[in-house]
Amino acid sequence: MPRTRNRPGLVLRHGERVGPLELFFDLVFVLAITQCTALMAVDPTWGGIGRGLVVLGLLWWSWVGYAWLTSVVDPEEGGVRLVFFGAMAALLVTSLAVPHAFDEHGVIFVAAYATVRLAHIALFVLASRDDAGLRHSVLGLGLSTAVGAAVLLTGALLDGNARLALWAAALVLDMGGTMVIDASGWLLVPGHFAERHGLIIIVALGESIVAIGVGAGAGLDAGVIAAAVLGIAVACALWWAYFDVAALAAAERLAMIEPVRAQNRLARDAFSYLHLPMVAAIVLIALGLKSTLAHVGDPLSWETASALVGGVSLYLLAHVGFKLRSLQTLSVERLAAALLLLALVPVARQVDALATVAMVVAVLWALLAFESVRYAEARREVRSAEHPHLRDSAG
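Now predict its structure.
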């Protein structure tokens, strides 16, 4: 399709294909996710997990900004490519600072993070110069970003729980800012936007695979092999739950919905917001799998048991919200499975870690088997793309 040049060196997006540079950018985000898991693994307490989740939320919101940005501009054309390279370098430094973000590297973390966000806002300002609606939304985003960065910097000058509290507040302020910005001003390419979020789920699932490898680093025996195989079964089930039907149906709904304001709100709620608990759940699961592989024959602690079993529950609950918001469908089966897993957390404290992973695998694959039988016809219709209007009823 013909491209529109908004300014010298800046080309507006028209196609829906996710480009190689966007995938390249996401590879740096892989390191960010890995570092968040490492931050939790060093201190697998409730406080350590909370710190890891706050940092993950901040990193996620920076990634979301670029997902919206690349629905407006083509990152592979003109000077935008160079700005993206600079943002990647800043994101890399941010990721490197994560393990010590709550002690000596707090200021470095905030400075690098602010650079990532500044590059994003600057490109958005250029892209919006001839679009009053987009410019209005971008200025609102710039204001909320500036407030969030100021709170982050203030937190970096404090220690302990005070830093954690201010950084959590900054995350809430930054993410909440988009709730009061006029949603009609944003530009969106639905197919590209949905695919970009699907790919980031793949990136996060890759972290769970890495966690298996790290956890098995101490040695390889029958127990470790069994746990690794079960860990892969968990990752495959998480992939199936998202990509088999839900992602396809939600992408179709996003492309079909009108008017622009409603479409942008759906993109914000179902993708920008509700994909965060999915990614956070996968990080928690990775933490649980890493601990399992390291101590196959021992029960998990309350924290790691909650991360593993509760993480899968959180993933399913996020799916319930995702399908309810995008398809107006309540997934009773996934809700029931999520509640069952929560009830099994105390059981996980009493049995070996290997048995805990086996329980999770059993619940996940029983759920998927039931859905595949119960919604077989709707599933075939969604996946064949022969009847897009029936995707709303997919299980």
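The two ends are 35 Å apart (CA to CA).
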